[in-house]
Design goal:
Blueprint lengths: L4 E7 L3 H13 L4 E5 L30 H21 L6 E3 L2 E6 L1 H14 L7 E3 L1 H7 L1 H4 E2 L2 E2 L4 E6 L3 E3 L1 H14 L4 E5 L4 E6 L4 E5 L4 E9 L5 H7 L6 E7 L3 E4 L5 E4 L11 E5 L2 E8 L3 E2 L11 H7 L4 H12 L1 H12 L5 H13 L9 E2 L7 E6 L4 E2 L4 E4 L4 E5 L8 H16 L5 H8 L5
Parallel strand pairs: 1-2, 1-13, 2-10, 4-16, 13-24
Antiparallel strand pairs: 3-9, 4-8, 5-8, 6-7, 11-12, 12-13, 14-19, 14-21, 15-18, 15-20, 16-17, 17-18, 21-22, 23-24
Helix pairs in contact: 1-6, 1-12, 2-12
The structure holds flavin-adenine dinucleotide.
Length: about 450
Amino acid sequence: MNSNEYEVLIIGGGISGGTLLYNLALHSDVQSMCLLEKYDHLDPLNSNAHSNSQTLHCGDIETNYNREKAEHVQGGAELMLQFVNNGSGDATLKRNYGKMLLGVGDEEVAFVKERFDLIFDLYPTLMKVGPDEIADIEPNVALVDGELREESIYGLYNPEGWAIDYGKVTENCVAQAQEVKGKTVEVKLSSEAIKLTRTENGFEVKVKNGDTLHCKFLVVSAGTYSLHLAQTMGKGKHFSVLPVSGSFYFAPEVLHGKVYTVQNPKLPFAAIHGDPDMTKPNTTRFGPTALMLPVLERFNAKSAVGFLESFHFSKGTATTLFHLMKDKDIREFIYENIGYEVPIHGKKSFLKQVVKIVPSMQLDDLDFADHTTGVRPQLIDEEKGELLMGAAKFSDGDGVIFNMTPSPGATSAFANAAEDLVAVTQYLDKQIDKKSFKSVFGVLPS
Ligand SMILES: Cc1cc2nc3c(=O)[nH]c(=O)nc-3n(C[C@H](O)[C@H](O)[C@H](O)COP(=O)(O)OP(=O)(O)OC[C@H]3O[C@@H](n4cnc5c(N)ncnc54)[C@H](O)[C@@H]3O)c2cc1C
């Protein structure tokens, strides 16, 4: 093979691309692979610790997951934890923060109790906690001036909760892949893929810097950009991207762990929560809000072009958006979230959400977290006129895979990469090193 030819080419240097590169290099007999990233460093966008909530979502406190989804997400979270514990050699990638689901007011209290009955057998360490127990675990949630707060509160608490620095996991995976001896593992930074073409023997990828690369199998894990790249190859034509960003606020340290609130089940995003930021000591971070924006990168206005390329002004998108806006709860949620972005007023109305978690929080304690957040690429199925609630993958067994990864895409990255590892090795008639995979993850890839 000449130097720009690989068995597998991966587009995207976030956690989806990084975990797959790791799997191929360490747990298969694929000999040559390359990862392309358009920025000059890895994890520049959503996988960076500054862009996401750093939560290992396992379904215990996420009330928008039904039991089936909770169980599914739990499996993916377990793979991430196994990697961090057994495969990364870096204990700083994770931090133990207890996770709490907080119900405020009689209706939510009843809901939280029912939720426990629905899922408790999946989570042996999950417990129900009343106001006094909450006061012991998170005093600032339960108490105001040393007395129990006025509204009824109730929670689910899992001391086995984890924050993960998904950006560092990405870097760790790529570094380990590059250390594998006897294989070609290249990482090309500042290399934006601009044109993908199917050829007789595989794929040709044109890069903005003038390079042309070839591969037998192509995996596109380009986050918010994956859908457009898929559509240039005739895949997923009836989907549109709905980019959902959001903001965070910093406050002084008022929480020991992660405190999530009850989620609207009609929406695919976690409700506003408060938690410590792994990268910022003595701080509590509140958010994220959920703001639909016509860009694919929050802090790059030029990415509006990418949005226009992958959002279609069609009957299907109109129907989906109309159905969303018809629902009173969703309509109010959308307006509320737009309101959070309005200067001065935004902070005041966001405070109302924060006070639900920490009732003594004051306006002056909240600071807008600048350059902190990312974009969740939610998909609209134009044929069905529906908003998809989670990730999407176009994998038709024809040598190319496209991954679209809204939350909890970072938690599920190893599960997703294991699926891709199976698809790639089957297609190329290669073998997975099951023994080495199992030694890290404790299970076989599926
Ligand atoms: C506010 C927020 C909070 C979140 N919280 C959580 C959480 O707590 N837990 C959780 O599990 N998930 C969370 N998520 C979701 C999670 O961050 C994403 O699912 C995950 O990071 C996606 O990883 P990725 O590698 O697929 O995409 P990305 O990290 O976006 O990586 C894609 C990469 O592809 C590159 N790229 C794009 N186009 C090209 C091209 N043409 N050529 C070369 N490179 C290209 C980009 O530069 C980028 O580096 C959150 C997301 C947001 C926005």
